[in-house]
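Worked example

This section walks through a single chain of length 248. The input is the sequence exactly as stored; nothing has been trimmed or padded.
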Amino acid sequence: MMNLFTGDCFNLEMPTMGGKYCWENIEERCGYKLQQNSFTKHARILDAEDFRVAFGDLSSMKDKFVRLTRDDFLKPGDVFGVSRHNLYEHYGIYIGNGMVINYRGDYDIGSKNTVRLERLKDVVGNDELFVLHFYEDGSVPRKISTKTEFNGADRSTKYVPQTFRYYSKIYSPQETISRAMSKLGEQDYNLLFHNCEHFAMWCKTGKSICLQEAAIPNKISLVTLHNNLTPLATQPVWKLALQLNQNR
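Given that input, the structure is written out below as tokens.
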């Protein structure tokens, strides 16, 4: 049976009854409650006024609960992602103190991209930031939004087989950072076969995985995407969007 509550589901903050019926309190901390539904087994997070601020599977919600009750949402060793206007996602490794290691040049996409150290705020800009939650069974990692209210489905995993084991190991935060640092200065970027997501996933799991490839609509082939994006690597995002729309 398909799990309708996988990952950090899109959420609109709304009042609840606080879990008087059908909900079990798992943990309370800093004004937040982590609860699990007795029937569906999905979980949710409520704030001090019993507004729902997140819901999804229990594993993801445990992760987000801890992050919401910390000073810093991101943790060293996280695989972070940035949604670029719903066109594509840029990935990297957070190493702490506001710094990241990622595969980038002056822009996200370009043949001269290098694995380099940058400030998180310079990479994210004004775009939407998220982290990936990894499961012990090796299933598809899921996004956890830094926001408590957001709309939109996780398109990056829509076309990906959900039961496949994508990785067998999850490296510790320190191991993940060490692996990322070992690649500093590498300049072997390829949009299709060795991009920022391949790099970040390799650092965390040892597998060069790019789930975005499965999310590209059939009407835009990978080859077409590569041919369109590579010449536009030095162009603003709005020009990239225009070029892609012309090929739809």
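What to look for: The CA atoms of residues 139 and 165 lie 5 Å apart.
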